[in-house]
Amino acid sequence: MATAALFMAPFPRVIFIFGGGSGSVRLFLLVLAVAASVAASTHFVVTPDDAVLANYLEKAYSYYTGKGLAPLPPCSGDKYLVYVNASAQYPGATYFGNGCVLKQEFRPGYTERLAFHEVAHMFFARFHNIFDYFWIDEATPEAMASVATKVYYFPPMYFSDGLYEKNPFSLGEDRVYDWYKYSAPLAWYLERAQQWDGVLAALSTGQGAAKMYVGFLLALAGGVELGGVVYKPRYRQVEVGPGAAYDYPDVEGYSAVYYNISAPPGGFLRIEISGGGAGSVVSNVALGRDVSLANGTLLVALVNNSSNTARLRVAFYYSVLKARAVDGVYYSGNVTVRIYAEYGFQRAVGAGRINGTVVDFREGFASYTFSGGLRPYVLRVEYNGSWAYVYLNLTEFGLEVSPKTLYLGRGGYGVLNVTVVNPNPIDVRCVLNGSGHGVEIRPVEIYVPRNTSIVAGVPFRAVADPAGFVAVRCGEVVGAVQLSQPAYSLDYDLDKGRGVLLVKYGSEESLYDVAELPANVSLSYRGYVAAVVNVPRPVLDVAFLPRRFENESVVYQVNITLSGVPPWARFRGTVSITADGREKRGNYTGGPYVTEITLRPGAKATVSVSVGMLRREFPIDVPMVNATLELVRVVVRGGVASIWAMVKFDMEVRDDIPIKFLDPRPLGEARFDGGYIFLNYTYSDVVVIRYAVAGEEKSAYVELPRPRLSVELINGVVTPSEFRGLFKVVVDVCNPSVDALYVVRVNGTDVTLKVAKGGCASNSTVISARARYSTDISFSFVTSFGTFDKHLHVPPPAVNATLLQWRISGSREAASVLLRVTTQNYTYIIFNKEVSGSAEFIEEVEVSNGVAVINYGFGVVQIRRPQLGILARPVAAEVGTPFVLNVTIRAPENLYIDAPLNTSLNVSKLVSVGPGTQEFSLAVPGVSSPGFYNVSISLGPYVNYTTLLVYRVNVTISAPSLAPVGAPVNITVIGHVYPSIDTSVLLSVSGCGVYKGVVRLNQTIQYSSARPCAAVFTAYTNTTKASASVRWASLTVGVNYTRLGTIRGLPVFPPRGFSAYALLGGVQVPARVEVIGDFDRLGRVSYNITVEYMGVVNRSVFVGYAAPPGSYTAANKTLGLLPPEARPYFQYLMERAAATGDWGLVDQISRLYTGAPTPMALLARYLVERDLAAGRGPNVAAAEALRQIEPLVLGIAGGLFLAFVRRFV
């Protein structure tokens, strides 16, 4: 199914041209009425028949094909269907199907340019997707039509509207009228192209259109010629001298800003840009580089080559001195650079400065050295009073080390290959050095020329176990090599005396032969020695351990190991053990090897042990059997220690060996039962057991510490005559040398303790006792181990008194008191009540002389009357003004008063006061005389004083009467007070909002209004009042000029007749007025007007057209004399003249209508009106020629007439 896309020209001029008077009009209407004939041309079928339109279309078709273009084909047949329809939606439209042209449609009144425009759509559609509709779709056909017909209607509007400062890609279909204006840059390309297919192909995509548009914006900097007219952009004027100037433009996407830069001739200019989007900006001059200003001027374009707005900072640096870096060298943190400088196009010679350092220029060259790393630098070069900047863009050089991974062990050595890349404009010297854990690097000095690279070898050696990585440095630049140790595995046969060393380099494996030990194996790997592996000769270690006594022989366990063996080495061989002429053999495969041999007790034997080629002999003194008495448990009771014990041997014994006990002998006979021996000894802190066994006499010691007692009072009851106590008695024993059971009797009660060897145990019992009361009492506890005394301190109870309530009512005072009784550790009998810990008692007493007295039996407590606070702040009151005396009563939590509150001002009030803070207000009538007064305030037995100040005030207000909106004005409240006092008054504002506040006397405040209004400021006290008015009005700009008329809503006025003044609320005021603009310029002008008054600034812009009064008046008159169909294009010429200031063509046309309507003048007017009605510039020169020959023609005609008269009359 075919789809249709609509391309339209929504604002063409509709011009009717009738050449034959009213008869032609009737003929045209007849054609429209019939509408039955069809005009068919070579490529178009026009319905109804319209030979003029068909001719336009064929001319357009022929012109475009002559430019190397081809259109889309018709959708049906071999000709394009064209309809003239008065009710068509658009003045001209072209409809497309799927890759073909459906039809074209025109309203009557079309122009030749409109016909060319619509035919251009057919040709451009072959290059561009008709469904991707954006500004290029109307700008391109309009540009083609403008160049083909030489009628440039829309292109001048591009320049007059300053559209080069707008982003065309941001204009939607609601701004389609502006799309036509962008035909100017495309027409500029087409005028310069012999064939147009390349231009249209480049414009067919958004990217291509953007690229070409940016190229046009760059060319516009110096002005472009279009249709025989040179157009230039609006320049920002920049005047620069030695130093810098700045501008901060916001440049929309795909738009430009233009500068006309003026500077003293013979200097150099550098333009640098920064800010958001600076990277997308291109220019017609080299940015960031010195540009010669031989003639002192430069036109610059900054074009935003992106779709985003660029917010720029543009810096213009000017100097008559030009400098650049020629070459240099970087070494060990120092940069030496050779600078070449020209001053006024001559080489610098003599003294100068670089960054403040004095240098000597010889034939333009000077050397400068400074410290720093490889980073960008700005060098300030000074010479002969001028300066220039050299931008030295240095960066860190590249450094790469191979191999990336170094398999390295102790003793390894070789060479690292280091590649150094120097991208800088200066040479680099450095010392290649490095470091790594366990690795030594031998330094190598290198030299790298600018913009080149070299490869250097750096020797290394492993002096310890390498780990981590090796860092190779060249100055501040570091390259890293990962260190990885090889993995070793040795299998060595001790019988054969040789083995194989397996080495793993990551996933690779290599084998190395190992013969005689010890050996150093050099591991060669990929061009370097990875390690020198030391394989030691193992040491044969043998341990002999006696295990048991069996068959009258001592059986030994033999443990065989190899020491000094690396963890990665495995040794194997035949084991041989020879003792007492007997040999025992086995196989050693690594780790410990265990076996047994037998030797005679008490003998001296030599044992020979070998593993393969390793052999050792060991002399052994064979021991006898060793026996000891091991204690198991002890029971201590009534002075006797009952001991359980057993005999232990140092090795397993299979025969019975007797034991005999010596002095001091145990109590009774020793008893043997189930392998245990039972013995009784008299208790002692240390019991000694002497015995003989296996032919040796030995002793055993039993440590039985004496029990310790501690006594703790559980409960005590105290009366004035007796203390009754209940005690807890604790018995504990620590650190016996054997598990023990103690039975201890305390005051006839047994206490049992089970104590582990080396541990502690305790137990307790409860015992009651009585004694006569005193503050210090002693109790005695008798045990079988001695007597223990317990001392107690029994103090009397502590009593604390607290006032609960103090009441004052009239002349009577009473107090309620709380007694708190506190006891320590015991129970006391007080007031026939048991008190344990604490108890409370409440007593009611009468007060005498402000003191309450309480007798609680153990002493007397006295409490005094509590304090009461009466506070009243000093009062300041205006003369004759009633005021309130505010009194604050602060009573403690236990005080209550019912009494009158009296003052010395003859004012009193009956109050009831309780705990806390209470406020009372006493109304006092006004005092008639100013001065200071001392006022007393009393409540019951309490009294205090405060101060009263009575003052008199006079007040006025100072303020300006008129101010501009937004300007703050000073409002001063002026006043006098007696007696002198720092006081405030109320200030209210009405009229410009509502405000109420308090200000100090003689204080100035600022007040402003953001809108026009009048405010009344009123300051007042209780007895005085003052007012002042301030009116805020708008600060506006008034202008004076002679108004000739308006064009497109803007005024037309003569040049040099413009002035401005300031108005405040419609009244002219003496403000500072500044008008900036070109008063001599004709055309569209703008004046920036600034007025400043009282710190308020109003900035306005006046835009209009400056025109010669005579030209404009004559043109207006001519416009009224023209027929209706010629007026639109003449109106356009007037508008163009007003915008550009070029009134030449308009003046020539106007002169045709200022003279007498002679026949030749009427003929000339007809020719001009015909061209104007056709939408093209009239041939005024031809019309003027007709006027010039008019006398000659009239003379000839007059002569012929006279001859006729004479002959026939």
Question: What does this entry show, briefly?
Answer:
The protein is mainly β and 1209 residues long.
List the helices and strands and how they pair.
Layout: E1 5-8, H1 21-34, E2 39-40, E3 44-47, H2 51-66, E4 80-84, E5 92-96, E6 101-106, H3 112-124, H4 136-149, H5 155-160, H6 176-181, H7 183-191, H8 197-203, H9 206-219, E7 224-226, E8 229-231, E9 236-239, E10 243-247, E11 250-251, E12 256-262, E13 267-276, E14 281-283, E15 290-293, E16 297-304, E17 310-319, E18 321-331, E19 334-343, E20 346-347, E21 350-354, E22 357-361, E23 365-371, E24 377-383, E25 386-392, E26 398-402, E27 405-407, E28 413-422, E29 427-441, E30 444-448, E31 452-474, E32 477-484, E33 487-493, E34 498-505, E35 508-514, E36 519-525, E37 528-535, E38 539-550, E39 553-563, E40 569-579, E41 582-588, E42 593-599, E43 604-611, E44 614-621, E45 627-637, E46 640-649, E47 652-653, E48 659-661, E49 671-673, E50 676-682, E51 686-693, E52 696-703, E53 708-718, E54 722-734, E55 739-746, E56 749-755, E57 760-772, E58 776-783, E59 786-793, E60 798-809, E61 812-830, E62 833-846, E63 851-855, E64 860-864, E65 869-871, E66 875-878, E67 883-891, E68 895-903, E69 908-913, E70 916-924, E71 931-939, ...
Parallel strand pairs: 3-4, 4-6, 9-12, 18-29, 27-32, 33-40, 38-47, 45-55, 53-61, 60-68, 66-72, 73-79, 82-87
Antiparallel strand pairs: 1-5, 2-3, 5-6, 7-8, 10-17, 11-17, 12-16, 13-15, 13-17, 14-16, 18-19, 19-20, 19-23, 21-22, 21-24, 24-25, 26-28, 28-31, 29-30, 29-31, 31-32, 33-34, 34-35, 36-37, 38-39, 39-42, 40-41, 40-43, 43-44, 45-46, 46-50, 48-51, 49-50, 51-52, 53-54, 54-57, 55-56, 58-59, 60-61, 61-62, ...
